[in-house]
Amino acid sequence: MWKNLPSILTNKDFTILETMHDRRHVLTDSVRQLLSHKLDNSTVVFSEDIDDDLVTLNSRVRYRVSGMQPQMAIVTQSRMDAMVGQSLALDTVRGLALLGLRETEEMTLPVQDSCTPQRLVVESVLFQPEAARRQRLNEELARPALRLVHDAGSICDRGRKAANELKQIR
Question: Which sequence spans correspond to the domains of the chain?
Fold first, then answer.
């Protein structure tokens, strides 16, 4: 069951969920329940400290629902940001459920409209913005700050050679 299942959220993701909670009157009952649970049972960490295998906002995820074929989606803040069929917004049960889960973790989704419960499993986090940012910064730090493009000594040698040639012509 999804009760008491802890989530790990970035401070940015937690703030977005708090804003959603303030506007909860526009959400479905199951999303409201799950949102309250996430806010009450989450550990909040800085974006720089989040593990690479956690689902954060704008992460690309491969997940499976109740033993069906795996699906891929980007977890987005709203449907307006979403590409049809390629994203899950936070105002959906699946999108909200994925946020804060780690690879291989699973959650039984809240029952919607008297349907049977669905089990959601995170198979892998294919892209996470925080991990990509860390990798980019590490690559930039590993690169030398300056690169020698042209040797000034050869310019001086050519200048002296040209000056000598001019003297010989005169």
Answer: 7-142
What CATH number labels 7-142? 3.10.50.30
E strand residue ranges, 5-138: 7-10, 42-45, 60-65, 71-76, 87-89, 106-108, 119-127
Beta pairing partners, 127: 60
User: Are the C-beta atoms of 96 and 90 separated by less than 8 Å?
Assistant: yes
Residue 123: what residue type?
A: E
Spatial separation of the C-alpha atoms in residues 97 and 134, rounded to whole Å:
25
pTM of the model: 0.78
The DSSP annotation for 125-164 comes to EEE-HHHHHHHHHHHHHHS-S----S-HHHHHHHHHHHHH
- How far apart CA 164 and CA 9 sit, in angstroms, is 71
Alpha carbon 170 to chain centroid distance?
71
Structure tokens at 70: 């795996």
Q: What is the mean pLDDT of each run of 10 residues along the chain (170 residues)?
A: 76 96 87 92 94 96 93 88 78 94 91 76 96 90 71 64 74
